[in-house]
Design a protein that fits this description.
This protein has 121 residues and is mainly alpha-helical. Helix content is 64%, strand content 0%. Helix 2 crosses helix 3.
Amino acid sequence: RGIQARQILQKGLEKAIREKLQCTQGKDYSDALDLLIESSKEHGKEMTMQELKDGTLELIFAAYATTASASTSLIMQLLKHPTVLEKLREELRAHGILHSGGCPCEGTLRLDTLSGLRYLD
């Protein structure tokens, strides 16, 4: 039953994603899937259909999951993609957020600093 439910969900997601990808008319809002697609394009790597489905599922279930679950998922993805992790570390170091040695929590974390983190965004 679980496998069948997953297949139905995957099929429905793929249909919705394909419709969204084919939609060329401008609209005055962006939903989470729009942001996911645009973010991947901006970083020079369009996501595969499977990656889009996985990302969409993550967004759906993250709304119901605990912070710990979402954090675990984030850590797993970063560990699967060490080059992404290193780029994040470089950006955090460049903005004085990640320190080598000493307390990583020195200083004040400010919203304007976070807003300047383009790769993290």
